Write the structure tokens for this entry.
Amino acid sequence: MESPIKIFSCEASQYLAEEIAVAYGQPLGKSTLIRFSDGEFQPSFEETVRGAHVFIVQSTYPPTDNLMELLLTIDAAKRASAYKVIAVIPYFGFARQDRKDKPRVSIGAKLVADLLTAAGVSRVMTMDLHADQIQGFFNIPVDHLYASTVLVPYIRNLNLPDLVIGAPDIGGAKRANAYSRFLHAPMVLGHKTRSKANNVEQITIIGDVKNKNVVIVDDMIDTAGTVCKAAEIMMELGAKSIRVAVTHPILSGNAVEKIDKSPIEEVIVTNSIPLKTYSPKINVLSIAGLFADTIRKVYQSESISGNFIV
């Protein structure tokens, strides 16, 4: 007998899981979250998952309750005799802590990988990890998808003349180079220095942006300080327009206010994380179809390499 497939969601990604289920062509599984007065919570499946491929959708953005809920839901599925449990994590939290960049700090991404494995997950499906090497923190399969699958066609359809792809920093050079090659556009690079986390002191633009339409690409936008500062400098250097295409719209603090006041014309993001604040400059593209198709291929043991653009 073939193992059935069931798609469930934790609370924080309910909106996305519902889209994925619709794109897949089956209803979202029934589950509840019981909350206690002291803040503790307990997830519960309201239908059998015995012998099933269980896909659990949850981005692990702050607060850490979102990560804890995912871990508890994985544990519940294993204890309910699920055949396989696949964690669908569009945004993988703690990914910026991928190494020891100074003494006596944690490697948070490795700890999260260990927690997921200890909880009993069989496979992880995620998108645009902050650092590719995080895949190696797992001893189970990791399907690492790329938002370029939806972002590249959108950028191409803009039909921007004199297009240039920008990397906000050295770390984003590989991603920007991939976009540059696929869109047949030159690349510019931002070199930034920080005094501390989330605080950019200076950005130097390497490359020609004069009379160019620039699209800055990155995996996430947090405080928006880097891209707003880079956009201002590029406009001073003669750029025609600045757009930003990122996967994960963290947009903490007054990030949206910074974007609204900046020379950036448009910020293109995915719905891996729900927007906290609306802005007419922010355009959200759905990744539900991509994840639904990948879930189908993983379930049917088919290759997913055709889902990669960059």
Observations:
- The CA atoms of residues 4 and 52 lie 5 Å apart.
- Residues 65-79 form the longest helix (15 residues).
